[in-house]
Amino acid sequence: MDNAIQNLCLFNFREEINQALLKGQPESVLEQIILKYIDEYRKSEKNNTEKEEPEECGICFGEIDNCYTIPGCGHKFCFSCVQETVEQALNDNNVEVHCPQAGCNSKIPTSELYAKFFTPEMCSRFTENSRRVFLMAQKNCKFCPKCEAGLLMTDNKLKVQCPICNTYFCTNCLCEYHEGSTCEQYQKWKAENDKADEMFKEFLKTHGECPECHMACERISGCNYIKCVCGCGYCYKCHKKVKHFSPHILQANCSLSGEGRD
């Protein structure tokens, strides 16, 4: 029992007993007064000794450690669990962090995020996320196709230069600027060019590539030794740098080459 409450009960007990004695009350009345205060004392002690059930975190489902209460809704979680929720929201490019409790739409105030959760690096990311969300909501905003910087347009120019990476791009199709071609013509050319790139990648899988300058080549005949225009000598099969008359070539030591000549 708390000391202040205990002292108050003792004072009331004495007062009640004294009043009963002054009035000449019988012993049965005095006994009832004593029993009443004994009963109150026991109830108080029982309440103090009963252990409260630990609160469960709705994120990790364990006992709450270092409790954090969401302002507004009052839901409680481990501080570290809320910290992870905040970090995940930033990773997802969100600018609002909602209460993790299922079905709850409360938000953690931005002031709370800055004061209790954000590191300097997280502050920068949150600012960048906020800036990007703002720009995406603007009808006159165009994003650079190279560095994704947002530009607020003040006119209808088709050719603009990104102030961040200096790339010129088309504000209509949002691709690199295509001088002398319409957007449709450029898109057609790009699709054909991308197809050629894929074909070239497939070509490199079955043909030689210089390990020094990455110049592609195709062997028509002869041994596996290739001398690139950059001066590098290498094995056509495994692309290892070798000399012309090395055992790798002369003795067919390359595990990929099979015979020295084919």
Automatic annotation (TrEMBL):
The keyword Repeat applies. The keyword Nucleus does not apply. GO terms for biological process: protein ubiquitination. It holds the Pfam family zf-C3HC4. It catalyses: [E2 ubiquitin-conjugating enzyme]-S-ubiquitinyl-L-cysteine + [acceptor protein]-L-lysine = [E2 ubiquitin-conjugating enzyme]-L-cysteine + [acceptor protein]-N(6)-ubiquitinyl-L-lysine. It is an enzyme of class 2 (transferase). Its EC number is 2.3.2.31. One of its GO terms (molecular function) is ubiquitin protein ligase activity. InterPro entries: E3_UB_ligase_RBR, IBR_dom, TRIAD_supradom, Znf_C3HC4_RING-type, Znf_RING, Znf_RING/FYVE/PHD, Znf_RING_CS. Keywords: Metal-binding, Repeat, Transferase, Ubl conjugation pathway, Zinc, Zinc-finger. Residues 53-258, 57-100 form the RING-type domain. This is RBR-type E3 ubiquitin transferase. It comes from Entamoeba dispar (strain ATCC PRA-260 / SAW760).
